[in-house]
């Protein structure tokens, strides 16, 4: 009987310990600021579970020409990507988008990667180790390798200072 009580107690405590290690989740919608505290982005992380899923990241006002370096007129509105849990309340993500010229031809792809930590009452997102890489497309080069991010970027990676986001509440 004593062994049965010990097993029962262990079974009850284990789920509580597991929740304590990853009590916050990344799933949800976020409203973010850059390092200078200017409004800079929105994102949404969806699941199939609390360990990983897909994400959308929107960067309104982002200079897709990189101060005139590129002759592009359009970029997909949202970076599409994936996220995964890396620790208790920590996660990593990668998102991509494609920029096109006036003729609709793809000029470059961007890849944004980073690490986030959910803090506070699970309502603040600390964004750390953010890197942006640019991959040139279709410019008389050999066919682009697929997947493109398996090769070195043509420009970057460029880092961004740590910044924060806040969970959008209903």
Could you list some keywords that capture this structure?
170 residues, mainly beta, 1 helix, 10 strands
Nutshell version of this structure?
By secondary structure, this protein is mainly beta. 12% of the residues lie in helices and 49% in strands. The protein has one domain: Avidin-like (Lipocalin).
Can you walk me through this structure?
- The structure is a single chain.
- This protein has one domain: Lipocalin (Beta Barrel).
- 12% of the residues lie in helices and 49% in strands.
- It is built from one helix and ten strands; from the N terminus they run αββββββββββ.
- It has one helix spanning 2-21; strands at 28-33, 39-49, 52-58, 74-75, 78-85, 90-100, 106-119, 124-136, 155-160, 163-167.
- The longest helix has 20 residues, at 2-21.
- It starts with a helix and ends with a strand.
* Backbone structural class: mainly beta
Q: Which regions are unreliable across 5 or more consecutive residues at pLDDT < 50?
A: 1-21
What is the chain-wise order of helices and strands? HEEEEEEEEEE
- Strand percentage lies at over 45%
CA-based shape: globular
What's the structural domain tally?
A: 1
Mean pLDDT: 83
Strand order of the largest sheet: 1-2-3-5-6-7-8-10
Query: So how many helices?
Result: 1
